[in-house]
Amino acid sequence: MHIELTELLRCPESHQADPLVLSTGEMAGRMVRTGLVGCPVCRKEYPIVKGVVYFTRGRGKAEGVRGARPADAGTLQALLDLSGPGGYVVLLGSATRHAVGLAGLIDGIHFVGTNAPPGAEELPVLSLLECATIIPLRPSIARGVVVGADLARAPWIAEAQRVLLRGRRLVIEDEGAALPDGVRGLGAGHGLVVGEKS
Asked: How far apart are CA 137 and CA 127, in angstroms?
């Protein structure tokens, strides 16, 4: 996990979202390889193992992908309307696979993979989080969110809207998925739905 992501994390428990506290173990540059993230409100501690922050032991249950055609990084970059460096893009579930391709197109954006497929590993451009109930980030912090077809359902689509900045775009890798309240539809086709947070 990139050390600067700490200030954007939130505890998945139902209480006020105070900033979490990081205790580092092993570091590799700006990436935390081992350590703990602690909640000052409920006192729960969440381990960081091999760069992945585990907020819950389980993960969001993935569903089979219904005939989805994988989008390419160039298409996603255009749909997300990403230009210029800085900020965070959340990749949910199987969409985490796009981190390297998107990073190759746009310098200076950090990607946050939540509930990535098994075998995914952190990278200097990618932090990984595991949580079975929410995207463990504060509201309105992401420049864009891509929801993988495996998690294109409630509560994950609503969580994607929650972490997205106003005026920024949400892409869902399931053409049949419904956009959540507060997201205006921009189009659907080729296995994707695109909306913008109002």
From this structure: 12
Looking at the fold, whether 152 and 94 belong to one and the same domain comes out as yes
Which residues constitute the domain of residue 47?
3-54
Considering the domain architecture, whether residues 118 and 42 belong to the same structural domain is answered as no
Asked whether 65 and 55 are in contact (CB, 8 A), the reply is no
Chain centroid to CA 154: 15
Q: Contact 71/173 with Cβ under 8 angstroms?
A: yes
pLDDT in tens, 54-80: 998 655 545 544 445 568 899 999 999
Contacts of 112 (CB under 8 A, 6+ apart): 5, 88, 89, 90, 91, 126, 127, 128, 129, 137, 142
Is-above-0.90 flag for pTM? yes
**134-165 confidence digits (pLDDT tens):** 999 999 999 999 999 999 999 999 999 999 99
Domain count, the chain: 2
Q: Please report which helix (H) or strand (E) contains residue 158, including its range.
A: helix 156-163
Do residues 12 and 56 lie in contact, with contact meaning Cβ atoms separated by under 8 Å? yes
